[in-house]
Every structure is written in structure tokens, then in C-alpha cells.
Specification:
CATH class of one domain: Alpha Beta
Low-confidence stretches: 1-52
CATH topology of one domain: Rossmann fold
Largest sheet: 6 strands, parallel
Order of helices and strands: EEHHEHEHEHEEHEHEHEHEHEHEE
Shape: elongated
Radius of gyration: 20 Å
Strand content: 15-25%
CATH superfamily of one domain: Response regulator
Strand order of the largest sheet: 4-3-5-6-7-13
CATH architecture of one domain: 3-Layer(aba) Sandwich
Length: 342
């Protein structure tokens, strides 16, 4: 893809994930999901009450502020904070562990009221978490999970397992519960890749007529997705492959190619929802996607922090505050304008 984002590490596998995540074309992404956006629905604070309680400053370390998905998330934080008389101080970690830790130390030294962390590595960020704990600053884990070892208020982001479940359900519906399916994986071993694949497989286990005939790796990269799709179309002539599922949004590239060469009989399922994915769905090249909203993540994070700082701690969902994951297809694409471009 032309744009990139860092893939999220699911909390269930965060302790095992150590490497910096590979760049994706993705919208780092609801409401077929079972997860509930409890923090956003629970807060009843008015602008006037926020003004009385504040002002608060939220320190934010984002691993890559040039990433389109994460940039949209940061902008949503800034806009939402204004409603609560709060300000945000966003620092760019440049996808470098040492820089990310230095950013955290900088924010601690500024005596921010709360700290939002979106790290590249779930383990390397732990010293920063512990320093914030020692300084008495509440730490919120946003979008990219953090391994155990420090004290976190909550995680705000998607459930990658549920994400995979939703992709699997969409594919099963698209092909009528039977047929051959290929899956294009993200960065092998990264928790989003593992959790999403497990979610997809859990759905297909209920459909004896669905067969995963192959998996390939596109690493959440547009060019690789295209070459993988070309390989699949060569390997499986018409009638031998019913669906292709990608774990990220880059599937719009392969789907556009398939349409160009007359292979529109295959149902292509993407993950996440960039403007390019939206266009692909409208054009009929993509069957649909799972939408993880960076705006929702940004807004929910601010609301959770406000509730926590103003003594409404019971309003904050812990240890996880999962964002909803709506499924988007041609039937409802007009109801979901894409929020970022990648």
C-alpha cells in the first residue's frame, strides 16, 4: 500500500511478542463484534463539568505519527480533549525503542496528568511504564498492547481474535458456507497475525464445506499483496478458489488486479477500512472488510482518561476496553465513511 500503519499486538499474546511490528498498509481499523465500547458510552461529563475539573494534560507517545491510521487516532484525541478542557502533548517515537522511552521520560518530566502509550514493542516499553508508575502517573495502553510487568489502567483498542472471527463470518457468508479459501497473513508471529488467523479458523471449524487451501504472507505490504494475489490466480483457475481473506487493508490492491484480469468470481475480504478499501467495496472489487476506527480509539481513550482523572474510575472498562468492529459491505458502505487514507 501507499500508506502504512503499525499493526496492533493483541493483549493475549503481548507477552510473547517482542519485535518491532512490520509496516502495514492498514487502517489499524464495529458492530458485529461482541466487544463493547464501554468507556465512550459510560461517560456523561458535560463540557462545563470538564472545565471545572481541569485543565488536564495528557501525554501521548505514538510509535509513528506519520502512520496514517495512527495520525488519525492522534487527531481524534486532540479534538476530543478540547471538549473536556484537556490538552494533549503528542510525541513521535519514530518506531525506535530508545526514542519511545525517551519520549515517555520527557512526558513524565513534564508532569502530565495521564500517559497514553502506543509502542512499537510490547516489552521494550516496560521501563517507561514502570517509571510512570513510580511517578504516580496513570498509564493507558492504546492500540498496541504492552506486556505484563507494569501497572496499566486499561487497554483501548481492538480484539484481534474477534477481528478474525468477524472476517471468517464475512467470508462464510460471501461464499455460502462452502468453498476453497486462501488467507494472506500479516507479519508472521506478530500477535495480530496469530490472533486473527485463530479467529478465522474458529469460524471455519463450524463449516465442514469450507477448506483453507493455502496461506501466503503479504506482511501488510501492498506490493506483496499484489504478487501473492497474482500467484493465487495463477495457481487456482476459475472455479477452484472461492475467497481470499487478507488480515489487513492492502487486499484492495490484489482485488483491483483480479477485477482487471476478469477474476471477479472470487470474493475478496480485507481487514481495516481506509479510503482505498472503501472505494474497493463501492466498486465491487472487495466483498467487505472489518472496520477498526482510529477515531473511536482516540475518542474512547480521552473519555476513559477524563473519567479516571475525575474520580469516575468505575466508568472505565478494565483490563480491556475493546472498540466495536462493524462489518462493512456494499449493503452498508454508505453508512461508514472511511476515516483515514493509506
Amino acid at each position: 500500500m501507499s500508506g502504512t500503519r503499525k499493526s496492533r499486538i493483541g493483549r493475549t499474546a503481548a507477552a510473547a511478542a517482542v519485535g518491532i511490528l512490520g509496516a502495514s498498509l492498514a487502517a489499524c481499523s464495529s458492530s458485529s463484534s461482541s466487544a463493547a465500547p464501554s468507556s465512550s458510552s459510560s461517560s456523561t461529563a458535560s463540557g462545563s463539568s470538564a472545565a471545572a475539573a481541569g485543565p488536564f494534560t495528557i501525554g501521548v507517545m505514538i510509535n509513528d505519527t506519520t502512520n496514517p491510521f495512527l495520525a488519525a487516532m492522534g487527531s481524534a484525541m486532540t479534538a476530543e480533549a478540547k471538549k473536556y478542557n484537556m490538552t494533549v502533548d503528542i510525541l513521535n517515537g519514530n518506531t525506535d525503542n530508545s526514542t519511545e522511552l525517551a519520549d515517555v521520560q520527557d512526558l513524565i518530566n513534564k508532569h502530565v496528568n495521564a500517559l497514553f502509550l502506543t509502542p512499537s514493542d510490547p516489552v521494550a516499553i516496560l521501563p517507561g511504564v514502570k517509571q510512570a508508575n513510580q511517578a504516580g502517573i496513570p498509564v493507558f495502553d492504546v492500540n498496541s498492547a504492552i506486556a505484563s510487568g507494569g501497572q496499566l489502567v486499561t487497554y483501548i483498542g481492538d480484539s484481534d481474535y474477534q477481528y478474525g472471527v468477524d472476517e471468517g463470518k464475512m467470508a462464510a457468508q460471501a461464499i455460502g458456507g462452502k468453498g476453497n479459501v486462501a488467507i494472506l497473513l500479516g507479519v508472521l508471529g506478530d500477535a495480530p497475525e496469530v490472533d486473527r488467523l485463530n479467529g478465522i479458523k474458529s469460524v471455519f471449524a463450524k463449516y465442514p464445506g469450507i477448506h483453507i487451501v493455502t496461506t501466503e504472507v503479504d506482511n501488510w505490504v501492498n506490493a506483496t499483496n499484489l504478487s501473492d494475489t497474482q500467484d493465487l490466480l495463477s495457481k487456482y483457475p476459475k472455479g477452484q478458489l472461492q475467497a481470499v481473506i487478507a488480515e489487513g487493508p492492502e487486499m484492495y490492491v490484489g482485488a483491483a488486479y483480479a477485477a482487471k484480469v476478469g477474476r471477479s468470481e472470487i470474493k475478496f475480504i480485507a481487514g481495516d477500512y481506509s479510503t482505498q478499501v472503501e472505494a474497493g467495496i463501492k466498486a465491487g472489487q472487495l466483498y467487505g472488510t472489518v472496520n477498526q476506527s482510529p477515531v473511536t480509539e482516540g475518542q474512547d481513550s480521552i473519555i476513559a482518561a477524563y473519567d479516571w482523572l475525575t474520580g469516575k474510575k468505575s466508568a472505565v472498562s478494565t483490563p480491556d476496553d475493546y472498540v466495536p468492529l462493524p462489518l462493512v459491505t456494499q449493503s452498508n458502505v454508505s453508512q461508514f465513511p472511511a476515516e483515514w487514507s493509506g
